[in-house]
Amino acid sequence: MYRARLVQAGGFILSQKIKSLLFAGITVFIVFSLIKFPDDALEASIRGLNMWWEVVFPSLLPFFIMAELLLAFGVVKFLGVLFEPIMRPLFKIPGVGSFGLIMGMASGYPTGAKIAARLREEKQISKIEAERLVSFTNNSSPLFIFGAVSIGFFGDAKLGILLAVCHYAGNIIVGICMRFYGRKEEKSIIAGQSPPSKNKVSIVRAFKEMHRTRMNDKRPFGEVVGDAVLNSIKTLVMVGGFIILFSVLIKLIFMTGVSPVISIFFEQLLKLFALPAELALPFFSGLFEITIGAKLISDLTIDTLLAEAIIVSFILGFNGFSIQAQVASILSKTDIRFSPYFFSRILHGIVGSVLTVILFKPLYLNKQAFELDDIPVSHEAKQNLWAVALNTLEQIGPVITIVFLGIAAMILYKRTIKIR
């Protein structure tokens, strides 16, 4: 018994030493790459910064602030009572999880993780329920799928319908699959506790829960709004840091010649599924950052659009390591484990790709066949609502970012003065 424990302890120490060497080696590699390619690193850093302050910050900030306010004012509790009969049987999570699902689909990642973490911090859901929730509420936003990928990269608005249906339907399927996650652990926790309430849907009861939640929050209105702004901006600053970091990292991987070597493995993997080997390098890039991967895929000149759509669907579902790092940072402040989310991202990528194969003909080819007008693609893209929204956001986004960063600085300054 003693020897077994000793061997186990020795194995743990060895694994920690290997991790230390691995982390140190990767960091040293990045530092030397930065020294060798300073101009390329600066260009990639500026690209990531532009993406953050033009699109990411202004598009996510309203959703983050509204999420904080809706939680504080009890509206999430209200929705929880109404959606309990749907969320509990389908996903085995409380009705409040519907708020994370709706907001995640509307605004994109990492909103789902942010809401799941907040619900867990407020003890509205259990640890297992939070891990289930975060596994299927981090989606690409409609603005990104239609505006950036379908129209911006491929110049084809109809492709967005296929990608969106496969992406969101795949996420719902993942959520249903994840309802079976953690059943044994959950049973041991809730043993002896009363089962979840099975009361019928009641507007009156939902309103009472909302009112009770608001009254339990003793903060004045001004402080609630200030906290919502500050918490949202803090999260988005962290998101911006990861976007810039991974933008530089991907550029350095290309500049050092590592990516072509690694892509050889992906070429063999794609051949197993009868997909063109030319997609290997874009696929590898998309595993790190969705935008770069989708752009590289759209730049290829291969005959079959189906193969490109399959890979795009996979990387949309996988989220990319950049998004996953953002989610991991948000979850690190809670007891929610990252591993269920990572597993669900692989599952979502696979399910989304399979749905793309199944739905490519009815949602794309048939739609193309019945298209009667001969409007040029470029003209269609200019007139598309999503393209207009994305272009407008890129123009006014920096102003919104600067204004709200200034507001956050003023709030922090006033609170610092009060403390003194």
**Biggest pleated sheet:** none
Tally of extended strands?
0
SSE arrangement, N to C: HHHHHHHHHHHHHHHHHHH
Based on CA atoms alone, the radius of gyration comes out at 23 Å
**What separation lies between the terminal Cα atoms?**
58 Å
Strand content: under 5%
Mean pLDDT reading = 84
Which secondary-structure class do the elements indicate? mainly alpha
Q: Low-confidence stretches at least 5 residues in length (pLDDT < 50)?
A: 372-382
User: Helical percent range?
Assistant: over 70%
Describe the protein's architecture and organization.
The chain is 81% helix and 0% strand. By secondary structure, the chain is mainly α. The chain has one domain (38-419). The protein starts with a helix and ends with a helix. Keywords: Membrane, Transmembrane, Transmembrane helix. This is Sporulation integral membrane protein YlbJ. It comes from Virgibacillus indicus.
TL;DR?
This is Sporulation integral membrane protein YlbJ. The chain has 420 residues and is mainly α.
Labels describing this entry:
81% helix; 19 helices; mainly alpha; single chain; 420 residues
